[in-house]
Amino acid sequence: MSYKQMTGNIISATKVEPAGKVVNSAASGVWNLQDAYDYTRGGNWPNAANAAPSGLIAGVGATGGSYTNVIDFIVIATTGNSTDFGDRTVSTWRLSAFGSSTRGMFNGGQTDDRLDTIDFVTIASTGNATDFGDQSTVSRFGTSLSNNVRGVMALGDTDASVNSDVMDYVTIASTGNATDFGNLSLGRFSLAGCASTTRGLFAGGYNSGNKNIIDYITIGSTGNATDFGDLSATSNNSSGCASNTRGLFALGYTSTYSDTIEYVTIANTGNVTDFGNLTEAKHNMLSVCSNLRGIFAGGSSSSGNATIATMDYVTIASAGNASDFGDLSAVTLNGAGCSGSHGGIAA
């Protein structure tokens, strides 16, 4: 008698290998104990302790005249629309974000004026944010990156300088105010950031015109940024994401709205290589990623300069054009995203 007959035709006799080790990955069919044990020993069996990689998106619903404290979340490995996570301690836009495997962090931004607020959430548990501490000064149009220990913030447009070169850092596991990290090679705002476990990249930005600069830092060591290479075009309002080996940049605004995505190998300095294209030309978007997949969300599109809610995704290891992921719960301009499974966290 087959397994299928024994189970009343409810369970297939054909086992299906799990798509991954996270809790929501199915391992359907009938498995014998030895095969299941082998997968478990190899760390490849779905496990409730392995949460599916989630991306957090702050500033959802910000459109320029309206600030928001909304945080949404997505499950990065699937496609679909975003869902409510909770609220920030402040309403803002033009903020930045970074994360460890346990915490999502949101910093800076603007309401009627610039902010120095840093707050955090626990990624595994939906709920509202808690105060973490403050940046060294108020800022907007900055960008942030992190590994699993430390977050580094390029402040962007501060009260003292619209083209600030200041970088702050915090230890993510310990609440408290930010400390000086060093300086960018050139002060600028509206730049993109991404990281591997050891190295952080800051690309593009604006300082009396768009820039094509890519700087790099060693996240574990304070100090000034060093030249890495160049983007293919000067750009601002761009966005970055990374695996632990490859960094991606969606250029945003060059001389017009851009759909270009470019990449670098983070361990090697040098100029970018073409990766592919977004589903439409846009800028002022945010990004969120796992070690496998990058997502570019919201922003302003070339179609009538409209603020949008759409999300695109790419597979970071494979160059190619982006595909539709789903939609944010509201149109969003100059929001920020982070996750607990990005390239700054070992796979």
Question: How would you sum up this structure, described in words?
Answer:
The protein has 347 residues and is mainly beta. It folds into 2 domains: 1-45, no CATH class; 56-339, Kelch-type beta propeller (Neuraminidase), CATH 2.120.10.80. Helix content is 4%, strand content 43%. It is built from 2 helices and 27 strands. The protein has helices at 3-6, 33-41, and strands spanning 54-58, 68-75, 83-92, 96-99, 103-107, 115-122, 130-140, 143-146, 150-154, 157-158, 166-171, 179-183, 192-195, 199-203, 211-218, 226-235, 239-242, 246-250, 260-265, 273-277, 282-283, 286-289, 293-297, 300-301, 310-315, 323-327, 336-339. The strands form 7 sheets. It has a 5-stranded antiparallel sheet, with no helix packed on it. A hairpin with a 3-residue loop joins strand 13 (192-195) and strand 14. It is globular, with a radius of gyration of 21 Å. 52% of the residues are buried. The model is unreliable at 1-11 (pLDDT under 50).
If classified by CATH, what would the architecture of the largest domain be?
6 Propeller
One letter per element, helices H and strands E, the order comes to HHEEEEEEEEEEEEEEEEEEEEEEEEEEE
> Per the principal axes of the C-alpha atoms, what is the gross shape?
globular
Mean pLDDT value: 90
**How are the strands of the biggest sheet laid out side by side?**
4-5-6-7-10
Ends distance: 43 Å
Helix content: under 10%
**How many strand elements?**
27
Question: Regarding CATH, which class of the largest domain?
Answer: Mainly Beta
Main sheet, how many strands, which sense, barrel? 5 strands, antiparallel
CATH topology of the largest domain: Neuraminidase
Strand content: 35-45%
Low-confidence stretches: 1-11
Structural class by secondary-structure content: mainly beta
Q: Any idea what the CATH superfamily of the largest domain is called?
A: Kelch-type beta propeller
